[in-house]
Amino acid sequence: MRNFQSFDDLINLYTRERTPSKAMVQQLGVVTRSFRQFAKVHHLDDIQRNHLLEWKQHLLNERQVTVTSYNNYLRHFKTLLNFAGEMGWDGTVVMKGIRRLPEHKKKKRTLTNESVQKIIGYLHQPEQHNMPGWFWEAVVKTLYYTGMRRRQLVGLCWGDIDRQHSTIMLRAENSKTREEWSIPVAPPLQAVFDELARLTQARLGRMFRTDEQVFNLPLFKSGYKGKVMTVEHVSAAFRRIRENTGIEVSPHRFRHTFATKLAKQGKIRDLQQMMGHSDVRTTLGYVQPDLNNMRQMLGGLGEI
């Protein structure tokens, strides 16, 4: 006998049964909310195949989400409905034959050194003092020198940074792969952490605890709900930076930049470890061919 009717009931049951990551639960909420608002469907038994097909067109044509985003929505939706099937719901047939769309692989978009410098210059402007600019400069440099994800950034605690050995522990609970690993701290980033530690202690009026957040925006800027920084705070800040600099920047673009630059050194296994990729093929996606090397190869053809 199933004990759910609504999407919220199902998500709650899925959370208890499967213990997914917090990010997974949040995304399930985003996806089901989008479907409910479009199809005006609130109970699983009311889902019709046509709802799903029209929702797809709504996302792609009206919302203009990317194919990758649509496939992400579909994957989460299927995960939830397949779980409902395991729990006794007999409506999984509505998903039969609804497949992910083919994705065209594009070159990873990265940031030039000039763009990064322009962003830092923007954050140095006096009018960005209340942002506060110095705080987001520290965030930018952390993303640039580590390639970590937003979730890892906001989940970073002072106890994760080993200042003696210059390493950062990226904990499993903030990882996409649910694995834990360490990465080195570049010397310029160590200076950033040292200054942030000094400012944090001054603001707190005491030594910070090891379980306290490294990047705690509400500590330095009033007016925010809650006492910790969230991924939403990060997204909002980068949206503001993007609008005011004209640079297409995001935390994930810093991750692409980090991986693409380091991939040129050819140490793919080491890069795989730093990126936290479970499959080396994901890391290889950052290896970009060198046009100059290709031109030299053409010289081997000779003349005819």
Automatic annotation (TrEMBL):
Residues 106-299 form the Tyr recombinase domain. GO terms for molecular function: DNA binding. GO terms for biological process: DNA integration; DNA recombination. Keywords: DNA integration, DNA recombination, DNA-binding. Coiled coil: none annotated. Transmembrane segments: none annotated. It comes from the Bacteria. Belongs to the 'phage' integrase family. This is Tyr recombinase domain-containing protein.
